[in-house]
UniProtKB/TrEMBL annotation:
GO cellular component entries: membrane
Taxonomic lineage of the native organism: Bacteria, Pseudomonadati, Thermodesulfobacteriota, Desulfobulbia, Desulfobulbales
GO molecular function: iron ion binding; oxidoreductase activity
One Pfam assignment: FA_hydroxylase
Residues covered by the Fatty acid hydroxylase domain: 92-228
UniProt protein name: Sterol desaturase/sphingolipid hydroxylase (Fatty acid hydroxylase superfamily)
Gene source species: Desulfoprunum benzoelyticum
Amino acid sequence: MTILSFHPDTARLAAFVGLLALLALGERLWPRRPLTVARAVRWRINLTVVALDSLLVRLVLPLAPFALAAVLQERGWGLFNVLPLSGLAEIIASILLLDLTIYTQHRLFHRRPLLWRIHRMHHTDLDLDVTSGTRFHPLEIVLSLAIKLTVILLLGPSPLAVVLFEIVLNATSMFSHANLRLPPAVDRWLRLVLVTPDMHRVHHSVIVRETNSNYGFNLPWWDRLFGSYRAQPRDGHLGMTIGLREWRNQADLGLRALLQIPFLRKVPGQ
């Protein structure tokens, strides 16, 4: 039985729930940093955001990436349906280019003020754990999906490549945000091929030059190739402050307040 024997959404949900449980257990056993906000408070908010994101995507953009890839393959549209590329080579090329798209998009969301207003909700989390990898404003989720669909339309990747990429992206987003302590030697070698929690945590520092680094979710190579890689935070992983300087009070970070962030001219306390 192959992955496509399942409905793609079923495969994604199974991977999401399974990895969420596994990483949550790992955070309990081997935490990297002490939490500053009660886990239950943040989990309730972050997982509710996931539910809202999923609902909005269904309403606004009902065409799933897998479904679009299937249509393109059937009609022979897109770059990979024209080039003599198939099998494992096509899957690898598709995953690499889709991952580069996510890296580019993430960097763009930091560089353009209007997009940053949307994306900064993700950076308001005062702690990082496995659920932080799901904390994205619904507007960002819709924009991200629209960008992904556009790239899929141009590339014409196989449905299998798209499903694998979606599963891997969800998995690595949760892993890279996890409050998980890895042995230094393991982290040092693993970050050569995968974004590790210690590598991505730097990106969530309140120090702006650290926030504007380590944009990768999945593969670490783009940050190294395009000069946005930063090995360690200035104050160390235990001494660094996570979040944004403008939002330091969890009382200002309830669900309603988070959803209003892109529309705020002023931030709390200003």
